[in-house]
Amino acid sequence: MTTFKEIRGQLIKSLASDPSPVTTGDMWYNSTTKKLKGVQSVTAWSSGGNMGTARRQLASAVAGTQTASLAFGGSPNGVTTTEEYGGTSWTGGGALGTASYKLWGAGIQTAALAFGGMKNPPSPSNLSNKSEEYGGTSWTAGGNMGTARYSLGGAGTQTAALAFAGSDVPSTLVATEEYGGTSWTGGGNMATARKSVVGFGVDTAGLCCGGDSVVVTEEYNGSSWTGGGNLSTPSRGYMAGCGISTAGLVFGGGTNKTESEAYDGTSWSVTTSLTTGRGALGGAGISSTALAFGGTTGSVTAATEELTTAATTKTFTTS
Description:
The protein folds into 2 domains: 4-43 and 309-316, no CATH class; 51-302, Neuraminidase (6 Propeller), CATH 2.120.10.80. The chain is mainly β. The protein is elongated and about 75 Å long. It contains 1 helix and 26 strands.
């Protein structure tokens, strides 16, 4: 019979009391209580500080962290409002130069990039090809994209970003553009045209998934796209996401969905759900410490949720 030592490479210790500190994967037998115990990781979403401005169809610095995030733009009607999250509350930042919604963002709180989107009223002539750069206090103009588009996705940093998918009205797009810090150039085309996607990662390892009526994932290697694993929950647009191409997370989307899924570089798996379903939201962080904010729950919301992962001691019993 296989033993725990053969599986984990260690013996289960017999101790008179629970040890401290402990880490995920530790296991022991408490000889006083006669209980087998171990430590496992538990993830959960919980409430964070509300945004100052309730909005949907906003953008974020997707590579930001749970304690240093940036939200900007959004609707109703397109706004210039920027807010910064410090781990407990949102404070006002510098205003965007162009009020827009259904745009995308890349980078971090102190070095962000905003690009694409739509101005009000929605029409082909009001699509944006502009990009703006945030230095921590204010936005300045960046290079214009080759194709004006809205409901697009993106990835990367302020000086090495990707823009992909979206719509130029009425068409959905496969075109990719790469930003080098001053100007956009053409990249490899995607296999599946779509809008309302989510993207994250870096310019040489980017990921695009979901979209309206689409479960497909595609991965970018710096020059071309290849197919990845399909989302496992029903297709939905306007999700939020964060992380890297081998450890990603998407959440919300569609008609006020709560579902979250984690990506390991090959396939998606269902993970801890949001406490409140919402679509057209913003997101940032990494797969174990993410941030979800804004969007619509049926009405436009300012609510924020934080995903945390903690080591928790579990008592094992027979059944």
